[in-house]
Amino acid sequence: MLRLSWTNLSGPVPSFLSQLPNLNFLDLSFNNLTRSIPPELSKLTNLGALPLDRYKLTGVIP
């Protein structure tokens, strides 16, 4: 579980998060993330939840 909500993150969603193979919950909500969700995050096969509240994202969800 990784909760980074309300931490003033900005820019693109970090692709290095795909290097956390046992991650089952990733909360990046209520930040200033932009662009698209990196396709590398599709490697997180254990990820059961990815809250997307208040994002300014574009593109497809991998």
Automatic annotation (TrEMBL):
The record's annotation in InterPro entries points to: Leu-rich_rpt (IPR001611), LRR_dom_sf (IPR032675), PGIP (IPR051848)
Localization in the cell:
Cell envelope
Top-rank taxon of the source lineage equals Eukaryota
Transmembrane stretches in the record are none
Recorded protein name is Leucine-rich repeat domain superfamily
Tell me the classification of the organism that encodes this protein.
Answer: Eukaryota, Viridiplantae, Streptophyta, Embryophyta, Tracheophyta
